[in-house]
Amino acid sequence: MLKRSFFSVVLMMTIGLTLYGQTVDHFETIFSPGSACRYMVPTAEPNTEWKSVDFDDSSWISGSSGIGYGDGDDMTITAGGIPSVYIRHSFNVASLSEIHSLILDADYDDGFVAYLNGTEVARANLPDPVSWNMELPIDHEAKMYSGGMPERFYLNSSVVAGSLLEGNNLLAVEVHNRNTGSSDLSSNFFLHVGLNVSSSYYDDVPDWFWKPVSFDSFTTPIMIINTGGQVIPNEPRIVATMGLIYNGPGNLNHPTDSLNEYNGNISIEQRGESSQQFPKKSYTIELQNPDGSNNNVSLLGLPAENDFVLYAPYSDKTMLRNAMVYHMYNKMGHWAPRTRFVELYVNEEYRGVYLLTEKLKRDENRVDIDKLTPEDIAPPEITGGYILRRDKTTGLEPFESWQSDIDPPYQGPMVYQYYDPDYYELTVDQRSYIKGYMHDFDAMMSFVDYDDPEVGYRSYADVNSFIDMMIINEVSKEVDCWIFSTYFYKQNDADGGKFFAGPPWDYNLSFGNLNYATEYNVPETYDWLYDIPGRLYWWRRMMDDPWFENEVFCRWDSLRSDVISNYSLESFIDSSVAFIGDGVARNFDKYNILGTYVWPNSSWPPTYEEEIANLKSWTADRLAWLDGEWAGKCVPDTSNVPDTSNVAVPGRMAEVAITVRVRPNPSDLSNTYIDIKSGMLSGTIHIDVMDIRGGMVTHITDETPDPNYNVYQLPDLSYLNNGIYLVRISDGQKLQHVVKLVKQ
Questions:
Q1: What is the pLDDT of residues 152-203, one digit of tens each?
Q2: How far apart are CA 430 and CA 423, in angstroms?
Q3: Structure pTM?
Q4: Considering only CA atoms, which of 182, 103, 174 is closest in space to residue 140?
Q5: Fewer beta carbons under 10 A from the terminal one: N or C of the chain?
């Protein structure tokens, strides 16, 4: 058992909200919008002493706190377009022994830092270091003027204990605009004190004030991150320490317990794009040894690795949607990120309920495909494995993605990104190979015979993964499916060479949790997602194939009896809620957003119980609609993908026993032979070599073939570009066969 660290002892004071070991008698408000203050709108960097209690602020403007413009929520209105405002709130403490705790409720636009007697105690949406006229990376909108609630900060207890003074004190706040073109700036701050005596010194708390919940014991694991005072940036990663406490199922976890699941170094940075507008931030973490190397260990029973994501559910107020989708896909027999609920502290500040999530990457315990090395420059090594994605290209260099030169049948060309390995990890030859492979796949999917069992998508794709990803996406109706956060990967040819759909990633806007894309009924429990314009067209194309559609019907019937039965999904929801336990109350104490709109909610009931009820109801209605479209339509004996190596295609090729061999294949096509063996050859044999689009390359005719066995040599085709070509054999009557020819 690891010894308790000094940090965990200090943290105990914050979690218990106890500075001096007393209990709170009542809360009062020290200052709020409308209270007297001094402020300054800077035109240059202010004196560094401006945040100290003894600073001479006589040249600053006297006003009522709540400084800003726009939105109608300001007590003191400034000129528009200012970059920042600096505010000093003075207050008096009669007796330190009577102070239990301090709470800062902040309603701000766009970022701020707060200092108690010169020491930083709270920060939001503001990078470090700060300059008076800096532009912020993202907006943050004030909430209270539109009926929302402020963001809560429990002031760092160890800092408060060392900084709070008997007598005169100062809370100084600098509030920064996104930029000078912003239409508003808000600085509404409320400082509350928890008193352990019945005496009254300040004002009554506002009507909306909510009392803190208990932070003494947890059913969830407790994760503690200490950055040494550094602000966690969007990038690059910074080095920090992390501790993890978990005493096992059925046991409570306390902040005074030993760091028994992890106690060591990490690197950490923010992650996400649209989610960065939220006060609850997501992070990417890497477990590290003291020398900075990867520390591959197991966390909370997950397979040993070093790369994880701390996902911050915010607009998804159930906090379950990602976990539920990954759970379903795992139960279907595929890898999807495994997850664990934790409650997070960063630098002694409670951050809420998080989802510790395996990062999507190549690994034997994650996406289990070969790892390329720079020496892998020829087949089969160069053929895999690759993870690609479709996603936003924000922050990427133009060469880190590419646009397919194939014009697909339903919408404009597709854009793909290198993911793992990324652009910089791949050699020129490896980039060329996977781009060429995707070109051939898109060309095949756009070709008239895309559904041919031998040369169509079944010869490329792991059909089961495509079917199950379609079912996952249609059940959840995640609005970004097939546009953003869409992943797929390619096996090494030595392992089968198949092209896989998935794994799933980022489903917080699923199960009806959005209020846009209404023209396509995405928030509703009816209608399709896969055929909406602008999406990745492969599934729409496959659903045009009766064989694939029937496979979906059959798989649906199988999954509905177990993995995605109503009972199974409701059981997952109920067990997850039970595991989080009191963490729900703590999370919504920190982020008081129940009953308020958070982008892009379609509804916002006032209680967590109603959020869960809505999730269950939407899911049940969606499953019922899909049952009406898919259930009971499976045609028996078509559930397995056929062996396509030497099988005639029903409906297109005669039911004739035939063996066709191309040798060598792959090759440079300078000296290629085609062997045709059958006991039923008759008439003239036609051999057509075509490119993937159906354009003729060369043609051979034999008017007097041997009825049993023939060998034909193709002309020198080494001048052709590398890629996939089709060889079609026909006797003009009942025999037709197509094989794939690879030029490299």
A1: 998 866 667 778 999 999 999 999 999 999 999 999 999 999 999 999 999 9
A2: 10
A3: 0.77
A4: 182
A5: N
